[in-house]
Specification:
This protein is an alpha/beta fold. The chain contains three helices and five strands, in the order αβββαβαβ. Strands 3-2-1-4-5 form a five-stranded mixed beta sheet. A hairpin with a 2-residue loop joins strand 2 and strand 3.
Length: about 140
């Protein structure tokens, strides 16, 4: 009589590749998607002014980019917003995320009054963490 049990699985099955491929594919999808979202705001046609200390700042997590076009139109996330819509968005932003960073990108041909109008809207909504986008000379 043979009392030894037959082994159903080999002793060393090796590395399971299917879960590893799934994880790598999901990471790839995440990084490609996040890269596309980070490029959308910089693709808007805005000629930034230059400054001696200008440069590409590191993006902060969750930073909102407000684009002020040369004609004074305000664009956020690819949508044109009037002053009331911008204020509503800023109020919701402060309500959900106090201290939320905002990046203001204004065209160098934009009249100063349009930039001040957007700054005033941010201040009314109690947004204080505002930075301005500029280019380094020769960029």
């Amino acid at each position: 009589m043979n009392f030894q049990k037959k082994k159903l699985f080999p002793v060393n099955p090796g590395v399971p590749l299917t879960p590893m491929i799934d994880v790598v594919f999901l990471l790839l999808c995440f990084f490609v998607t996040s890269q596309i979202f980070s490029q959308w705001e910089t693709e808007i046609d805005i000629a930034l002014p230059t400054a001696a200390t200008g440069g590409m700042p590191q993006r902060l997590p969750g930073e909102v980019i407000i684009n002020v076009m040369a004609d004074g139109a305000t664009v956020v996330n690819g949508q044109m917003l009037d002053d009331a819509q911008l204020r509503t968005m800023m109020d919701r932003l402060v309500e959900l995320f106090p201290g939320q960073p905002v990046l203001l990108r204004a065209d160098k041909a934009t009249a100063y009054e349009h930039v001040v109008r957007v700054l005033d809207t941010c201040r009314q909504a109690d947004i204080w963490n505002i930075s301005f986008a500029t280019l380094a000379p020769g960029s």
